[in-house]
Protein 1
Amino acid sequence: MSPHNIAQPALYQEVAERLRQRIFSHELEPGAWVDEQTLAEQYGISRTPLREALKVLASEGLVTLKPRRGCYVTQLAERDLDDIFPLMALLEGRCAFEATQRATPADLKRLESLHEKLERQAAKGDINGFFEANHAFHEAVQELSGNRWVKQVIDDLRKVLKLTRRDSLRLDGRLKQSLEEHRRILAAIRERDAATAEALMHAHLLSGRAALAKMHAAALSPNPSPAGGRGERISHG
Amino acid sequence: MSPHNIAQPALYQEVAERLRQRIFSHELEPGAWVDEQTLAEQYGISRTPLREALKVLASEGLVTLKPRRGCYVTQLAERDLDDIFPLMALLEGRCAFEATQRATPADLKRLESLHEKLERQAAKGDINGFFEANHAFHEAVQELSGNRWVKQVIDDLRKVLKLTRRDSLRLDGRLKQSLEEHRRILAAIRERDAATAEALMHAHLLSGRAALAKMHAAALSPNPSPAGGRGERISHG
DNA sequence: TCGCATAATACTGTATCCATAATTATGAAT
DNA sequence: ATTCATAATTATGGATACAGTATTATGCGA
């Protein structure tokens, strides 16, 4: 239509995205204090758009704002993971159900193509590649479900989950197990067995939670205190 | 424990809350343009905290930001309602299931007390009172479910739903019907029949969607254009 | 040497100012 | 009279400056 539909994104949006990436990559790790001035100088911008970006990230739950104190990267407790994973299991399970009923032959073909990529990454033993392919498959299922709000909620929750390290795939045979779960999910979708697809997807998510718990149990030496700065100012009260 | 835990909320938070109330009360109706300068003058503050408040509201989905164009109250399409209500049905249904299993006798007592309030408001024919009592009951069920993240997601979605007028309760026998549905839900919880409680809660939400659809079908003359201002600048491309 | 009070410092919160882009108004040409 | 181009206006986006509060450092007293 008109040329001004190609609206250039506002600066605070770009800043928010860059901060997200730094949080997801754990360059900014949970508990780390975020200094407005320092970051603004780093990016060569003023504090105004940076502050707006932080407000957005706070709404997403990635950072926590303490009025007149500052802002730190949100720390998830085990309790949070115990809440979020079953929720994701419920939502993604539902998506699998709907997707199974709505998928056209062309959609199935695409799902299979995405799954094959997953198989290849697994064969290569590429953890990051597997992670990305896994995400692509799940996202495709969510889109096939046809409910944009469910997908939106799942995306938001996934962002929060990315606060935790994603190396549970490195655990013993977790990658192989995850792959096998995917195979069975795809099979159920292909066979138009919506109820089974839902159940398997549900179990798949809970399986992911279990792997994470196992990993956390193994590493029983969590970072005792948030990364320095202005001293310990977090009071979980 | 230290005195600074009584952190005074930042100005942008108060502004955000006041704007939420104006949106929920439909003083600011969907599609209405939000003028930063005008609002800042109204509240006697500068544009800075106001802009931060708008970023927060945008993250919540209550307003839509058009970079370099401005900001208007989000308009929900029927499609959105068709997506959100089934999602709420899924989530609140799950809450009912969990709540049924976890409720202590004291919890049951409280639920019954909340339901009685609903009965009283219905008897009085107080629509707003019924609405509030209804909300209180649903919220109690969500809290009993014990999953804070599910409750959080439901709360967020409920805020978005408040963009629509809530007068579907005025429809023919909708209030009576809603009350009856509540009675059956409470009965199922009391009888520790989690599966039935889930099913009934699920149906209750979908029933709410149906009432809204009926109302929208009746009023087939929607506001043709967003409330004035700088002319029609919304392009739903 | 340790604890507390006070001063210094650094960061967040808010206001003001400037730049830029979008919309509206104006005017000329067809 | 209508349409298009151009100028003026207005609102948003971003930067800077100032105020207030929380933390840290310093020094006094026990």
Protein 2
Amino acid sequence: MLKEERQRTILNEVELHNRVLLTDIAERLDVSIDTVRRDVKELDTENKLRKVHGGAISLAFTSPTAPNNNTYALQEKINIAEKAVSLLKEGSVVFIDGGTTCLELARLIPQRLQLTCFTLSLPVAMQLLSKPNVEVILIGGRISKEAQIAIGASTINELTAIKFDYGFIGTGYVDSLHGLTEFDWDIVQVKKAVINASKKAVLLCISEKLNSQHRYKTCDINAINTMITELDPSNNLLNLFRNHDIRLL
Amino acid sequence: MLKEERQRTILNEVELHNRVLLTDIAERLDVSIDTVRRDVKELDTENKLRKVHGGAISLAFTSPTAPNNNTYALQEKINIAEKAVSLLKEGSVVFIDGGTTCLELARLIPQRLQLTCFTLSLPVAMQLLSKPNVEVILIGGRISKEAQIAIGASTINELTAIKFDYGFIGTGYVDSLHGLTEFDWDIVQVKKAVINASKKAVLLCISEKLNSQHRYKTCDINAINTMITELDPSNNLLNLFRNHDIRLL
DNA sequence: AGAAAATTTGCTGTTTTATGCAATATATTT
DNA sequence: AAATATATTGCATAAAACAGCAAATTTTCT
């Protein structure tokens, strides 16, 4: 195995799980601990990760951007984000919504993938700044303090002039019958606009939210092209969604 | 578990609940109390939190000045920001530029002051989110990775439709003769638009930048209404600016 | 292709760091 | 003041980092 490959593997591991142990990775790659240590040292001096006693941690872990350790159900969300990343193709023009799941998606975009990403979300935009090959376009507007995204008429207006290859969106609540719903009216308005502006709308949603609903409706479930949960697509919990014309991932 | 992970967890806990008990966290992390104690001690000397008898508390808890990291010439910038804050009046509609000085201004806006703040800067917008009485409006656009602000035609276009009471701006270089100049052309374009959109343009600038210049020109010094440095307005270094019709603060 | 040079890798012994434990001291509470 | 909880110190152990060296591999050059 080439040094490059090894270092790539280490980096992937770090980006994915925020950390690695030298011993683990040495065993997995079947090289001596010294080699791994040297690799990590190099990657550290290249500022690709941060070497610490016993292993290495992601830069995101230390830097101001996203010290996301208290995200609820982080593992599930990472799982979802990984599936979403697999949809991305070189040169795609995509929209990434706010919320912790979408933030994970932003975080897991591979360094070398060239993309144009639109977003309404401040944290997502911040996260994307660390991706050298991603052009970041923030759609501005009045900022919602809780959701940390742009909302309001001017925002919606801007959205009408764009078409995304994929719109990756989250939702507060989802139900096979009542579709996507939210607690907040303003948020529903921008989400509607996003879905309209997306050739394909991809819903990222942890299974815990399935079969829940709230006051304001964003769209019918049919408006969603692909739905990603942390579950296996064949899981029984998804049966109700299988009837609709939705791709499950 | 790596030491850094542990410390991260402790920090999160502190930031979240403003305090932790050493015994609690030791049990949760399944390490000895000594280890936690040592971690907390380290974090304390790094000024990430404050160690107290039996546990640790958040910095925000002790000092009103938030946990600021490693800004260059921070004290000067705080000084400038404080003067700028004194210009703010209840209900003002202002623009706040990017850069560390302006970020300090955003940070120092009093909690109870009611304002409408426009900005192009992601960090400034994030900072403003913690101000309950500030309406934050982010002007969107293509995001400059280095400057972390929105740039480009659509951004400039949006700026033409607004008038701010005050536009608080920074600059890369300033000179009494050559005016405000920058290293980056795109940035000059948006700054021009901001100055146009401001009834009064207020320049925030540490004295170190006085009498320096660069390639692209933002505006003449006369376009600036008020100039704030960390120096006393009577300081000799400001003599060259006194001739112009500028208010020094 | 084959030799020489440069790089990479694994191994050795040594040094440093991290952690837990116990004894003692200090602070806090009742 | 006594009882309890928390801090400090020194020490022992294990794990990890480091430095130097030699074997193995890759690259470069003829």
Protein 3
Amino acid sequence: MRVLVIEDNSDLGDSIVRNLRSIGLTVDLFGRADEGAEAWRLAEYSAIVLDLMLPDGSGLEVLKAARAEGLSTPVLILTALDGVSDRIAGLDTGADDYLTKPFHGDELAARGRALMRRSKLPIVREIQAGSLLIDVEARAARVGNGEIALSRSEFLALECLARNQNRVCSKESIANAIYGFDEEWSEGAIELHIHRLRRKLSQCPGAPGIKALRGLGYMLRPTGAA
Amino acid sequence: MRVLVIEDNSDLGDSIVRNLRSIGLTVDLFGRADEGAEAWRLAEYSAIVLDLMLPDGSGLEVLKAARAEGLSTPVLILTALDGVSDRIAGLDTGADDYLTKPFHGDELAARGRALMRRSKLPIVREIQAGSLLIDVEARAARVGNGEIALSRSEFLALECLARNQNRVCSKESIANAIYGFDEEWSEGAIELHIHRLRRKLSQCPGAPGIKALRGLGYMLRPTGAA
DNA sequence: TGAAAGCTTACGGCAAGCTTTCAGGTGGAG
DNA sequence: CTCCACCTGAAAGCTTGCCGTAAGCTTTCA
């Protein structure tokens, strides 16, 4: 799941990013309103965190414009402690929730979760793929009783595959699940992650396998055998 | 457990903070009514200590507004010795108890404890994590019959982990359990607390372990082995 | 059969986490 | 007031595990 953060204060921005990442989200951070506007045209986000006080104009206007364009992603706005009017204006303009600065990291994570829960997107806490069960919240993958220890990248790749059962996941879409917007990545790295994932899955009897589709990508195969 | 203190006299405020902290609470201190009002919207407090004489208007009004918004946290108000009418008005407005200045630190602590005991909030007094039992009120951790001696920070960290079984606790959320709003903290310090906690837990056969999830945080593991 | 795509292994860099040490601070006991 | 025990966290060095490049091998397809 992918979240866009638009915040010019880099300390606060980093903290937000770390926090959201800690609950398993992939995060893109931008410091300016126009960059953010461009980003949400390019990628599909599950939620957006928007600071209203930005160096290049009010975040409000950008939000307004985006809603007019048909953006339906849930938006959480950040305002200064005393920006009551901003806050109200924000909610009028199409924000779904707000948070005043300063705030606790926990609070942000909780609001984020609530936001996504309320959104139309079906938030799946557990994904079942044959005998494989992925617990997104606990970041754990199980086959029967056995838990499979996965690294961050491996988990995200598997989650992407499991969310798209019987559909092909291109390397690019897997990369999008693992890496942020501006991070570089190579096909070799994806192949390597798939390789390590396969090795771990194969040690678990009954676990599904990953099939490669030449030129297209990968697919999760319901049963371990063929 | 976390407490909000709204008190403009900084000497008195500090004294209250020290006092409450000494009985194991995490405390946020604010000097103005509006700051306090924002704070209790943002974080979940177990109790609130509110001075009625504040520079920016009466604490009473703020309390009234908050109750109207649905705040159900127990509130303890502080009044001057001769502010009888204030006191009565306070209780009418939705305070749960009062204390006249000057007062003894002990008295404050005792009232605070009583307040939380009486609270309607579903405060969990005991948390079970496998063979580990945490008595929040008595600030004690037990495995079987053996009690584990923990420092304040260690206890709070463990409490945070135990409240979130099968979920990842980021270092930030653990820090939020230990430190107040404006206190600085370092990741190293959290790691250190976890380290000491682990050492104590490991000496107790059957106690759960703490698993590190690289880049995400920590998780309490139901059984010591596995 | 040759090229492209995918697979596998090896290796090194790097960041996260762990552990130890040390010093300052606080609180309680004498 | 002094002493002592304990709690706390900064600092430093060590360990671990993740990640990704690189290189060579295998498979697939034209």
